[in-house]
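ARCHIVE CARD
Drawer: 12
Card no.: 0347
Subject: one protein chain, sequence and derived structure
Cross-reference: see card 0346
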Amino acid sequence: MKLNKNSWHARANEYVYGWSYLDNVDCLCPYFWGTLLAIFLTPLWALGHGIVRVIDALPETNVNLPSISQRTKNRIGTTFAYGFFGLMITLLTIAFGLAVIKYGLLNVLIVIGAIALVVSGVIGLFFLIMVIKEKYDDWRWDHPKEKKPNLFMEFVRAKKNKHCPLVEWV
């Protein structure tokens, strides 16, 4: 499977993991799961980098702060993202447990199901609008659209065929 290094998912992986990640990945399955994690961690990682930039931009004081290397900045940002992710999971687990104790399991599951239904409805509406826009653009310009490999569909096909295709970067 040919993937472009300038695609949105490659840039998300570059932002979170660095180019060495793209150079070391040669199979679709780990790249797909790494991309999902990168999409989730990008805002958290950016927040960690923002904190590092604020620390790095502090004016000179009497305390002699050593300059922070780019590698250390990357480690701090990634550590912050993973730590924040773990903290969120822990807090959600505690909140779920407390809600079950206070309101009962059935009521909590009904609320979670309602929230999931609303969120999936919004996501479905978003994708419906995107599909309608694509169909309208195809009709309007009346030209054949060149098909590019879709990362998600290629992953589904690979899981169905029980093999992961090799990734070739172009």
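Annotation on reverse: The beta strands are 2-3, 168-169. The longest strand covers residues 2-3.
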